[in-house]
Amino acid sequence: MAEKHDPNYKVIAENRRARFDYFIESDLEVGIVLTGSEVKSLRTGQSNIAESYASVEEGELWLINGYIAAYKQAGVFGHEERRKRKLLVSKKELSRLWQAIGREGMTLVPLVMYFNHKGRVKLKIGVAKGKKVADKRETEAKRDWNRQKQRLLKQG
């Protein structure tokens, strides 16, 4: 991603549950169409993409159920908190995503929303396949073992 010293790069919202619930096969950085009050609200870090998903509808890519808190100073010119937001992606990528979710069990999951080095809001979406309960247990066991291994290496 971006270097740590970049002053404009800032993570707004992260879907930490996505890697636990899904196998992420590939990911893609996309732009997002926002209003002014939404950007102001995101600058204060008030958003959530944990329950949201992306979908291809009418030849366009949309973020559905993404939450951006209302910006109080906007007054009557504010925005709807859970509206559908259009995602910006090339036609070639859109067709690739459409084919990917056409396969069985595949979905588009938002992974992280952030300001890039130019100060623009970007969203990283992943093409994912849902995990079964046994897969989740296996992932958790691997994570625990790696954590324990790091502790042992640190002590020894």
Unreliable spans: none
Largest beta sheet: strand ordering: 1-8-9-2-7-5-4
**What overall form do the CA principal axes indicate?**
globular
**How many helical elements?**
4
Distance between the termini: 33 Å
What is the count of β-strands? Answer: 9
Biggest sheet statistics = 7 strands, antiparallel
Run of helices and strands: EHEHEEEEEHEEH
Strand pairing plus helix content: what structural class? alpha+beta
Quote the average pLDDT: 85
Summarize, please:
Helix content is 30%, strand content 35%.
Structure explained in plain terms:
It is globular and about 60 Å long. It is built from four helices and nine strands; from the N terminus they run βαβαβββββαββα. It has helices at residues 18-21, 36-43, 91-102, 133-155, and strands at 10-14, 22-32, 47-48, 53-57, 60-64, 67-68, 85-88, 106-115, 121-130. The chain has 156 residues and is α+β, with helices and mostly antiparallel strands. 30% of the residues lie in helices and 35% in strands. A hairpin with a 2-residue loop joins strand 4 (53-57) and strand 5 (60-64).
